[in-house]
Amino acid sequence: MDLQLASFIAAGVLVVVGLYGFFFVDNIIKKVIALSIIENGVNLTLVSMGYREGGYAPIYLPTLKFQLFSTNMAYPLPQALVLTNIVIGASMLAIMLALSVVFYKKYKTLKTSIILKED
Amino acid sequence: MVKKMDNFLPLIVVFPLIMSIIFSYIYKSKIVRILTFLMALILVVLPFFGTYGTYFFGDHAIALGSTSLTSGIAYVLNPAKNVMVFTLMLIGSLILISATGEKKLNGIFTSLMLMGLASVSAIIMAEDIFNLYVFYEIATITQAGLVIASGTENAYKAAFRYLLIGTMAGSLLLLGIALLLSATGTLNIEDMRNFLANNSATPAIYGGLLMLIIGLGYGGGLPPFHTIKADMYSRARPFVASMLQTYSKFVLIALMIVILKLFGGLPYFNITRGVLIALSIGGMVFGTVMALLQNDYKKLLAYHTISQGGYVAAGLAIGTPLGIVAGIFHGINHAIYKSALFLGAHIVSKAKSSNMAKLGGLLPFMPFVAFMILCAKLATIGIPPLNGFQSKLLLIDAAMKANIPELAIIMILVSIGTFVYMMKAFYLIFLKPCSEEQIEEYKNIKISKYSVFSLAILTVLCILLGIYPDIVVDRIYPFAKDIGINWALNK
């Protein structure tokens, strides 16, 4: 199978699995993990977009011929976007996990149905 | 064509960001108080540093086929965006001044406020869609942080819910950006607009549009995300809520502008326009109905914010130049009078409760504050000569000119609903007779002069923009004419 197509399918599966976990799993940590999986699915979509069969990684080395490099390198923009998104995702994850710790200390459970219940 | 200009436009974003990092390391309350006050003064003049035009970071372009596409971070400043950034910074400055009057003021709070101001300014000025996404996410984290800073358990819950949905909405927005990038080969909004205008739509473009609308709904508090936003506003401290609603309103306007700029003139946008108007009506009606049912003043104001967000979105969704002017103008007006109302709620909350059933008879103890709150309430209802009247009139005019009288009627009905609950709140808080015990309690209320000062400035603005709406409208109109299209519903 075409590697790019396989990557897109894998990304789609990751997003669907993440959405399932987010909506149907009653555990605060698992919900956070599900969100992380969705995010990775989106990142994989982005990276796959820039993929080029047999292409070079978009880092120019003096040993490469410029003409050959510029016509065969993978599209670097999505990779730059993914790097930024990983940083944003990590900070979101950190805050959510910190809040999960606070909730666990208070309620002694990880069930979202109990923790996020309205007073 | 995007070109570099020698101006200090990036300072509008970079300066608050740098100061935000510095403030997060300052713990001494006295130093924080002085520096926060100084920052508040600087923020007001910051929008005047940028000259109009496009600022392109790096000034390099990549060539793709025969089309020259621009790549990198680009900001655009024009009179319309400058008015929005100035309003944002002014409200931020007034909230910071108000915060200096608080007993507990730490560097983290000021840091979060500045980060929010920087990110929303960047969202307003961003000309490349990925930069917009990055600051959209930073604004989400900042808003959650400001709610967490309230310190109550319910605030933690509201922030957690907001982050949960925010992470998902942010991921979907990024997916939309990825789809648009794959379809158009660029992230620059102007280049993307040119590509979309000259090429037929593909499934990736439809997907991208759908994801942008999801991001818009979350960022702007439109249905189905409205309850999460309302929850945030009601759980945060009132003067923090005034900042949160200002952020949301400008994010809503900025994202709507991006959607209109990219897709507004295309034939397949008509169905999307209908969906956006339906979402706006949903927000307006739901917000008003829920506000009518509330006994808690903070919750009432929170749902009122959702209702007014619907007005802003409706004006922009109409998409005619008049509709866009009305939408942006109402957004600016709403940010001003709603900040005044939340600041008023902050002063009223010194009476130990925000439950309107437990309040009453506050008028003799704070007549000046009551007058200013009444002005803000009349502005939000749309009573002349206040600013809300001018923008609501423009909105109704835009709906009528687009041949959607039903929308105009809904706007008027929602305004009547707003009149009922706002006047009910005013009566219950200030006019209802109170007991002797309450009078004794009220005598001990200490009103912060900083909050009163901020409230007074916002009230003056409500009156000023009501009498001279052209100050803002004239600056927005050329921009609205560029992205809007003249159309009318053919029945």
UniProtKB/TrEMBL annotation, chain A:
<keyword id="KW-0812">Transmembrane</keyword>
<dbReference type="InterPro" id="IPR039428">
    <property type="entry name" value="NUOK/Mnh_C1-like"/>
</dbReference>
<feature type="transmembrane region" description="Helical">
    <location>
        <begin position="32"/>
        <end position="51"/>
    </location>
</feature>
<dbReference type="Pfam" id="PF00420">
    <property type="entry name" value="Oxidored_q2"/>
</dbReference>
<dbReference type="InterPro" id="IPR050601">
    <property type="entry name" value="CPA3_antiporter_subunitC"/>
</dbReference>
<protein>
    <recommendedName>
        <fullName>NADH-ubiquinone oxidoreductase chain 4L</fullName>
    </recommendedName>
</protein>
<keyword id="KW-0472">Membrane</keyword>
<feature type="transmembrane region" description="Helical">
    <location>
        <begin position="80"/>
        <end position="104"/>
    </location>
</feature>
<keyword id="KW-1003">Cell membrane</keyword>
<dbReference type="GO" id="GO:0005886">
    <property type="term" value="C:plasma membrane"/>
</dbReference>
<keyword id="KW-1133">Transmembrane helix</keyword>
<feature type="transmembrane region" description="Helical">
    <location>
        <begin position="6"/>
        <end position="25"/>
    </location>
</feature>
UniProtKB/TrEMBL annotation, chain B:
<feature type="transmembrane region" description="Helical">
    <location>
        <begin position="363"/>
        <end position="387"/>
    </location>
</feature>
<keyword id="KW-0472">Membrane</keyword>
<dbReference type="InterPro" id="IPR050586">
    <property type="entry name" value="CPA3_Na-H_Antiporter_D"/>
</dbReference>
<dbReference type="InterPro" id="IPR001750">
    <property type="entry name" value="ND/Mrp_TM"/>
</dbReference>
<protein>
    <submittedName>
        <fullName>Energy conserving hydrogenase EhbF</fullName>
    </submittedName>
</protein>
<keyword id="KW-1003">Cell membrane</keyword>
<feature type="transmembrane region" description="Helical">
    <location>
        <begin position="275"/>
        <end position="293"/>
    </location>
</feature>
<dbReference type="GO" id="GO:0042773">
    <property type="term" value="P:ATP synthesis coupled electron transport"/>
</dbReference>
<keyword id="KW-1133">Transmembrane helix</keyword>
<feature type="transmembrane region" description="Helical">
    <location>
        <begin position="132"/>
        <end position="150"/>
    </location>
</feature>
<feature type="transmembrane region" description="Helical">
    <location>
        <begin position="246"/>
        <end position="269"/>
    </location>
</feature>
<dbReference type="GO" id="GO:0005886">
    <property type="term" value="C:plasma membrane"/>
</dbReference>
<feature type="transmembrane region" description="Helical">
    <location>
        <begin position="204"/>
        <end position="225"/>
    </location>
</feature>
<feature type="transmembrane region" description="Helical">
    <location>
        <begin position="305"/>
        <end position="329"/>
    </location>
</feature>
<feature type="domain" description="NADH:quinone oxidoreductase/Mrp antiporter transmembrane">
    <location>
        <begin position="126"/>
        <end position="413"/>
    </location>
</feature>
<feature type="transmembrane region" description="Helical">
    <location>
        <begin position="450"/>
        <end position="468"/>
    </location>
</feature>
<feature type="transmembrane region" description="Helical">
    <location>
        <begin position="7"/>
        <end position="25"/>
    </location>
</feature>
<feature type="transmembrane region" description="Helical">
    <location>
        <begin position="335"/>
        <end position="351"/>
    </location>
</feature>
<feature type="transmembrane region" description="Helical">
    <location>
        <begin position="108"/>
        <end position="126"/>
    </location>
</feature>
<feature type="transmembrane region" description="Helical">
    <location>
        <begin position="162"/>
        <end position="184"/>
    </location>
</feature>
<keyword id="KW-0812">Transmembrane</keyword>
<feature type="transmembrane region" description="Helical">
    <location>
        <begin position="31"/>
        <end position="49"/>
    </location>
</feature>
